[in-house]
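Project outcomes to date are best conveyed with an example. Our students and postdoctoral researchers have been running inverse folding experiments weekly, and each run begins with a structure described purely in C-alpha cells. The record below, which covers 303 residues, was selected by the lab manager from last quarter's runs and is presented without edits.
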C-alpha cells in the first residue's frame, strides 16, 4: 500500500532545458509508469514544435504554409489556436510570427525560407487556421517560433498524463515553467533576474501553474545576465522595461505566453492578466518589485 512518503523524482534534457517530474502518494510501479509516460508526452511536444528539427510541424509550416494549406498534429493546432487568440487579445504584443526577427538577432538559426521582416511589421491575421487541423500563411515573410508557448503546453500535457494514472500529487518543472497538482501546496522560490544566484522570495502553489521569464543567463560563461530574448514585435527590439517576471495562471501554456506580454508591456498588461485569471510579479530595471493586487498575500518576499 502506498504511503504519503512514497515519491519518485526524475529529470531529462528536453525542450532546451532540463524537465523535472516529481510524483508522490502512489505505488512505486504506478509512479514509474506515469513518469515515463509524462516524459514521452513532453518529448512528443518537442518533436512537433521544435524550430530546429527539419521534420517538425513548425519547420514544415515555415517551408510550406505560404504555398499551400499544411496539415499539423492536433496538439500543434491547439497551441496555434491559443497563440492566435492571445495575439488578438494582446493587440499583437504576443506574436509567434517573430521568428525572422529572432533570426536577424542571431537568437535563431537563419533560413532562406523566411525573409527579414521590417521593424514594426505586424502579423495580424497572417496565420489562417483552417478545418481539419490545417494552417495557411497569408504572407511570404511569415515564420513562426512556438518557443514562447510550447514549453508551457508540454508541462500541461505531462500533468494531464500524470492525472490519467490517478497519481495524487505531482509537479512538472521545465526550466522554470511549472505546474503542480494535489492537496499539498508546493513551495516555489523566485530568483532575482539581475542575479539568478539570489532568491527574492517564494510562493506556495496548489493546482496552479507558474512561468518565469527574465534576461538571458548562461552560468557556464558568466555570472552576469545579458539582454532580453523577448522581442517587442512592434519595434523588433528586445524588451527593455522589465528585467523579469513570474506569472501564475490556471494553465502553464497561458502562464508561459503571458510572461512575454508582461516583459514587453509591464503593468499595462493588467487587463489581459485579469482576462486570463492570472497574476504577476514584475521586477523593473531599477529593481522595483511590483505584484498584482490579487497576489500580494501569496508572494513572500525575502527580507
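After processing, the design step wrote out the following sequence:
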Amino acid at each position: 500500500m502506498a504511503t504519503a512518503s512514497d515519491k519518485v523524482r526524475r529529470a531529462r534534457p528536453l525542450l532546451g532545458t532540463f524537465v523535472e517530474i516529481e510524483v508522490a502518494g502512489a505505488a512505486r510501479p504506478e509512479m514509474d509508469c506515469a513518469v515515463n509516460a509524462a516524459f514521452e508526452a513532453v518529448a512528443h511536444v518537442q518533436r512537433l514544435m521544435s524550430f530546429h528539427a527539419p521534420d517538425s510541424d513548425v519547420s514544415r509550416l515555415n517551408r510550406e504554409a505560404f504555398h499551400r494549406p499544411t496539415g499539423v498534429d492536433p496538439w500543434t493546432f491547439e497551441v496555434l489556436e491559443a497563440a492566435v487568440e492571445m495575439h488578438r487579445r494582446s493587440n499583437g504584443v504576443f506574436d509567434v510570427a517573430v521568428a525572422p526577427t529572432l533570426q536577424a538577432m542571431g537568437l535563431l538559426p537563419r533560413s532562406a525560407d523566411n525573409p527579414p521582416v521590417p521593424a514594426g511589421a505586424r502579423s495580424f491575421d497572417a496565420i489562417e487556421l483552417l478545418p481539419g487541423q490545417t494552417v495557411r500563411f497569408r504572407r511570404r515573410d511569415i515564420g513562426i517560433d512556438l518557443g514562447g508557448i510550447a514549453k508551457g503546453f508540454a508541462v500541461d500535457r505531462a500533468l494531464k498524463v500524470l492525472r490519467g494514472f490517478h497519481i495524487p500529487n505531482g509537479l512538472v518543472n521545465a526550466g522554470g515553467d511549472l505546474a503542480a497538482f494535489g492537496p499539498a501546496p508546493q513551495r516555489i522560490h523566485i530568483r532575482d533576474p539581475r542575479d539568478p544566484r539570489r532568491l527574492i522570495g517564494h510562493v506556495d502553489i496548489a493546482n496552479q501553474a507558474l512561468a518565469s521569464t527574465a534576461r538571458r543567463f548562461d552560468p557556464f560563461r558568466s555570472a552576469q545576465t545579458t539582454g532580453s530574448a523577448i522581442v517587442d514585435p512592434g519595434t523588433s527590439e528586445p524588451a527593455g522595461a522589465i528585467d523579469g517576471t513570474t506569472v501564475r495562471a490556471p494553465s502553464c501554456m497561458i502562464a508561459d505566453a503571458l510572461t512575454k506580454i508582461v516583459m514587453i508591456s509591464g503593468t499595462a498588461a493588467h487587463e489581459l492578466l485579469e482576462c486570463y485569471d492570472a497574476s504577476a510579479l514584475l521586477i523593473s530595471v531599477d529593481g522595483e518589485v511590483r505584484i498584482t493586487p490579487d497576489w500580494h498575500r501569496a508572494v513572500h518576499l525575502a527580507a
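Residues 185-303 form a domain with the T-fold fold (CATH 3.10.520.10). The two ends are 43 Å apart (CA to CA). The training component of this project remains on track.
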